[in-house]
Amino acid sequence: MEEAKGEEVTLFGFWSSPFVHRVTWALNIKKIKYKYVEEDLCNKSDLLLEHNPVYKKVPVLVYNGKAIAESLIILEFIEETWKENSIMPQDPYEKAIARFWATAAGDGLWQFFITEGKEREEALASVINNFELLEKELIGKNFFGGDRIGYLDISVGWISYGVPIFEEITEFKIITEEKFPLLHAWMEAFSSSEFVKDTLPPREKLSERYRKVREAIIQKKN
Amino acid sequence: MASEKGVMLLDFWVSPFGQRARIALAEKGVQYEYKEENLTEKSELLLKANPVHKKIPVLIHDGKPVCESLIIVEYINEVWSDKAPLMPSDPYQKAQARFWADFVDKKVYDCGSRLWKLKGEEQQAAKKEMIEILQLLEAQLGDKKYFGGDSFGFVDVAFVPFTSWFYSYETCANFSVEGVAPKIAQWAKRCMERESVAKTLYDPKKVYEFVCFLKKKFGVE
Questions:
Q1: Into which family does the record put it (chain A) (predicted)?
Q2: Which residues of A touch B91 (CB under 8 A)?
Q3: Please, what is the end-to-end C-alpha distance for chain B in angstroms?
Q4: Chain A residues inside the 8 Å CB shell of B47
Q5: B98 contacts on A by Cβ (under 8 Å)
Q6: Residue of B48, B58, B92, B104 to mutate when probing chain A, most A C-beta within 10 A
Q7: Residue B68's closest chain A neighbor by CA?
């Protein structure tokens, strides 16, 4: 474990947050020793509010007293601060593609999850369109990062456990081995990776949480 | 896309997002071909270059498309690294720059749109929010020449295109940027002294004409 002299790394998080998981995975891959603080999102700590006054959200990484917020920004900070076990592509174009998909990959998925009828169909069409393009990024590779897990794998890693839960709750399978063979294989490879497998939240607990959130949203609409 | 050598920018004249790319290219002294898109009838090239969002701006460099304005600016900064660095070298300062550019992205355009689209109480709420946004940004700027310190940087590029919309925001919602965030108003003037900015931004009255056109189009009184 890397623990440079006088380095203090703290991660403020919440067990179910996919944004927090991104940071956890990056810290694991970089072998960075850190302290984890679980926040109660209904009763946020003074420390969290002090470190992220703009959004008051998790994750926040505090490094030697300096706070960094927004998960993707934290990933790039981690990459630039700890040089070993690089997660970013070197080539500027590949970096741009990775940064693009880091946010675009999830487009439509939440809409698909929380809507019904025609709205849901439209969201699904958008999701499928994106996944078809995303699948192409895996051609000839085990991971988006190539042989090893990289920034994009980490950024979209939540798909590996989140989508199956969405599929179960909505009773609709999106990522089938038939339609998305590469994505399907990637999900398995990513979630069973040594850096990921012990970090995943308990599936039943997570599924229950998403189920409740969905019910509340749909009920409010009707 | 043919692997043509060179740089092309697919854009829309008044888009603040497109202007970010234009300003970055100008700062770096990069020659490029500008292609104006008709957003009601998007070109085949645009649809092919940005199949996910079908939006401008798209930078096409040697046939390869880069989408999303802030990603484009970082790309431009990394490729043409010999001149006018737009990012600090310290990782923490970089993270701060990305955070505030992202803040501008999340907040300014949406809130600004609500200022001219809405009326009554909803507009008042948007106005209150815009003032908070401007004051938060002003606190970040402090007494620095630019958000980037002495050098014009990433956050400056991200935010400066919106300064040509200030007049529209002020007119629609009845407030003054100079009144609520004087340092931001002064910063805007300083930025206009830069050739890259002065040659890219349109006259605020022209932007307001465009806003009026949009209001008519969306049936807003």
A1: Belongs to the GST superfamily.
A2: 77, 80-81
A3: 43
A4: none
A5: 70, 73, 76
A6: B92
A7: A100
With bands split at pLDDT 50, 70 and 90, how would you rate the model's confidence at A3? very low
Q: Which residues of A104-135 are buried (b: 16+ CB within 10 A; e: fewer)?
A: bbbbbbeebbbbeeeebeebbebbbebbeebb
What are residue A22's phi and psi, to 5 degrees? Answer: -55, -45
| Contact of A111 with A39, CB cutoff 8 Å | no
The answer to whether B177 and B166 have CB atoms below 8 angstroms apart is: yes
Query: How much is the pTM?
Result: 0.96
Minimal C-alpha gap between B215 and chain A (Å): 27
Q: What is the ipTM of this complex?
A: 0.96
Residues B4/B31, Cβ–Cβ less than 8 Å: no
> Averaged over A33-51, what is the pLDDT?
96
Nearest CA in chain A to B133: A54
Of B53, B68, B136, the CB nearest to A54: B136
Distance CA A91, CA A75 (A): 17
Q: What is the pLDDT of residues A135-149, one digit of tens each?
A: 999 999 999 999 999
CB A88 within 8 A of CB A79: yes
The reported pLDDT for the residue numbered B87 is 98
